[in-house]
C-alpha cells in the first residue's frame, strides 16, 4: 500500500461520539497497523483542555485490558486544538497546525497528502464548519475527505437544502455520509452471501420468496437523549436510514462490479421503486412504564414534552415495485424499550410447490446482524431416529462458533478504514439519501399534521397489542414451527 502522509481532524473531539466511537475505532486500526504510517490526528472542539485531559478523554473507551505501550504510541499521533466552529482565525490556525505537523512527518512515500475532516458534531454545525474549512483550511493540492454523520436533515426538503449547501463546498466524491449499519459485519456480508453463492441468488425473487421482514429491537428506552429523540422519533432515527439501507442491499440486483458507484446505483434503483409509505400500512407505538413500574415511560423523561406523540416504535409494510419483487411485502419494524436486543433480516420462502408432505412449514433464511452475528436457514428434516415425522431444524452459521478466534470490528473501524482508502461503497450517496426521504416524508408530515396518536406499549414488552397480528394479516406470514 502507498504510504501517504495523512491528517485526520476530528471536529467535536470533546463530545460523546468521538469518545465512544471515533477514537476507539482509530485505536483499533492503529493496533492492527492499518493506519497510514505517516499520520497526524487532531482533535478540534470548543472546550479548553490540556493535552493530558484530552488524552484521558479519548482513551476512556479503549477498554480495560489494553496494552499501555500501544496507547502511548497512539497518543503520540494525537493532539488537541481548541477553537470555535465559526471563527475564521481559528480555522486559519488549524491550517497552520496541520501544515506544521505535516512538515514533521518523515519524508518519503508519494507526494500526495490526504486530509480527512471528520464531523463528530450536531448537524446544525455541519454547514458552518464545512464553510470555514473550505475558505480557510482546504488545500486543493491534496485529497480532501469530509465525513459526516446523520441526521442528514429532517425531511426531504431540509435534506435537500443541506445537500445543496454542503455540495456547493465539497464535491460528492469528497463527501462520506456515514450510516454505521453499512459498516456492520453482517450487513457487509449480504452482498457476498447473495452474489457469491448460487443457491441464494437463484431463488432470490418473488417466485420463491413470500415476504421479507427487517426488524430492529432495543431493550432500552431513550433515557438521557429524550430531547434529541423527541425531535426525530424512531422513523427518522433508524428506519429512514439504517433499515432502508439494509433493505436496499437485500433487494438490489447484482451490480456490474463492486465499484462504489455501481453498488450505489443498484441500491438507489431499489429505493426508486418504493412508493411513499402510507399511514394505513403503518403502526406506531410509544412506550409507557414497565408493568412493575421499575422502568419509566417515554414521557416520564423530563426532556420529553408531556403531550409528545413521537413514536418510539413503528412498523410499516412496503413494496418494491420491480420484476424481481412485485407482490412481495417487506416489513420494517423498529422499536425502543422492547423485550430484547435484536437486529435481523428474515426472508420467508413460499410454500413448497407439489409437496409430497402435507402441511409443510416454510423455509426461512435469517441473517442476524446483532447481537449474535449469524446466518441460519430454517430447514425441514426427518425427525432423527425411527420416526418418519418431520421436524424444523436449522442450517446454522453462528459466527461465535465458527469463527471464535476472530474479533469482529466495530462498524466505525471498518468505515474509517474505508474513508482512509477512499472507498465510498459503504457510504450514502446524495441521490440515495434523497430517495430515502421521499419514501418517508409524506408519512412523517401526515403524522405530525394530524397528530396521529401512537399506541401505548409497556417498557420491556413485544410492542403494542396487535403488532404481530398487524404484520401477519398484511404479509400472510406463516409461523414456521411444525
Ligand atoms: C443510532 C440511533 O443511529 O443507532 C440510536 O440514533 C440507535 O437510537 C443506534 O440506538 C443503534 O445502533 P447499534 O449499532 O447500537 O445497533
UniProtKB/TrEMBL annotation:
Keywords: Carbohydrate metabolism, Glucose metabolism, NADP, Oxidoreductase. One of its GO terms (cellular component) is cytosol. Pfam families: G6PD_C, G6PD_N. It is an enzyme of class 1 (oxidoreductase). Its EC number is 1.1.1.49. The keyword Chloroplast does not apply. InterPro entries: G6P_DH, G6P_DH_AS, G6P_DH_C, G6P_DH_NAD-bd, NAD(P)-bd_dom_sf. Residues 9-189 form the Glucose-6-phosphate dehydrogenase NAD-binding domain. Residues 191-474 form the Glucose-6-phosphate dehydrogenase C-terminal domain. One of its GO terms (molecular function) is NADP binding. Pathway: Carbohydrate degradation; pentose phosphate pathway; D-ribulose 5-phosphate from D-glucose 6-phosphate (oxidative stage): step 1/3. Catalyzes the rate-limiting step of the oxidative pentose-phosphate pathway, which represents a route for the dissimilation of carbohydrates besides glycolysis. This is Glucose-6-phosphate 1-dehydrogenase.
Amino acid at each position: 500500500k502507498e504510504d501517504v502522509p495523512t491528517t485526520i481532524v476530528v471536529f467535536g473531539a470533546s463530545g460523546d461520539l468521538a469518545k465512544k466511537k471515533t477514537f476507539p475505532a482509530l485505536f483499533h486500526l492503529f493496533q492492527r497497523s492499518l493506519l497510514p504510517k505517516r499520520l497526524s490526528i487532531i482533535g478540534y472542539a470548543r472546550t479548553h483542555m490540556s493535552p493530558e485531559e484530552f488524552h484521558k478523554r479519548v482513551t476512556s473507551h479503549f477498554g480495560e485490558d489494553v496494552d499501555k505501550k500501544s496507547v502511548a504510541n497512539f497518543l503520540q499521533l494525537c493532539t488537541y486544538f481548541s477553537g470555535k466552529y465559526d471563527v475564521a482565525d481559528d480555522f486559519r490556525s488549524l491550517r497552520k497546525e496541520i501544515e506544521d505537523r505535516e512538515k514533521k512527518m518523515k519524508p518519503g512515500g508519494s507526494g500526495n497528502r490526504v486530509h480527512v475532516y471528520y464531523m463528530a458534531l450536531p448537524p446544525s454545525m455541519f454547514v458552518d464548519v464545512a464553510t470555514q474549512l473550505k475558505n480557510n483550511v482546504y488545500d486543493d493540492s491534496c485529497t480532501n475527505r469530509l465525513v459526516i454523520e446523520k441526521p442528514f436533515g429532517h425531511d426531504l426538503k431540509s435534506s435537500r437544502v443541506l445537500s445543496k449547501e454542503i455540495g456547493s463546498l465539497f464535491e460528492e466524491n469528497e463527501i462520506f455520509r456515514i450510516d454505521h449499519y453499512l459498516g456492520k459485519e453482517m450487513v457487509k456480508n449480504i452482498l457476498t452471501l447473495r452474489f457469491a453463492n448460487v443457491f441464494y441468488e437463484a431463488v432470490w425473487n418473488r417466485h420463491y420468496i413470500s415476504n421479507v421482514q427487517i426488524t430492529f429491537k432495543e431493550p432500552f428506552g431513550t433515557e438521557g437523549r429524550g430531547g434529541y429523540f423527541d425531535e426525530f422519533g424512531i422513523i427518522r432515527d433508524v428506519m429512514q436510514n439504517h433499515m432502508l439501507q439494509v433493505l436496499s442491499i437485500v433487494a438490489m440486483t447484482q451490480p456490474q462490479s463492486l465499484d462504489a458507484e455501481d453498488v450505489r446505483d443498484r441500491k438507489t434503483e431499489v429505493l426508486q421503486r418504493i412508493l411513499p409509505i402510507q399511514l394505513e400500512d403503518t403502526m406506531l407505538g410509544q412506550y409507557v412504564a414497565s408493568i412493575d413500574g421499575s422502568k419509566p415511560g417515554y414521557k416520564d423523561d423530563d426532556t420529553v414534552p408531556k403531550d409528545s406523540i413521537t413514536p418510539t416504535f413503528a412498523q410499516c409494510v412496503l413494496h418494491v415495485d420491480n420484476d424481481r419483487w412485485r407482490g412481495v411485502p417487506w416489513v420494517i419494524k423498529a422499536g425502543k424499550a422492547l423485550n430484547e436486543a435484536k437486529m435481523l433480516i428474515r426472508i420467508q420462502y413460499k410454500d413448497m410447490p407439489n409437496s409430497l408432505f402435507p402441511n409443510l412449514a416454510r423455509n426461512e433464511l435469517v441473517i442476524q446482524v446483532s447481537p449474535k452475528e449469524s446466518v441460519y436457514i430454517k430447514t425441514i428434516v426427518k425427525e432423527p431416529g425411527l420416526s418418519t415425522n418431520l421436524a424444523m431444524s436449522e442450517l446454522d452459521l453462528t459466527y461465535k462458533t465458527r469463527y471464535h478466534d476472530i474479533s469482529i470490528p466495530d462498524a466505525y473501524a471498518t468505515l474509517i478504514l474505508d474513508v482512509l482508502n477512499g472507498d465510498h461503497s459503504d457510504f450514502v450517496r446524495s441521490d440515495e439519501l434523497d430517495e430515502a426521504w421521499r419514501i418517508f416524508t409524506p408519512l412523517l408530515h401526515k403524522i405530525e399534521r394530524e397528530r396521529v396518536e401512537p399506541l401505548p406499549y409497556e417498557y420491556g414488552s413485544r410492542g403494542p397489542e396487535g403488532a404481530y397480528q398487524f404484520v401477519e394479516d398484511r404479509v400472510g406470514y406463516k409461523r414456521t414451527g411444525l
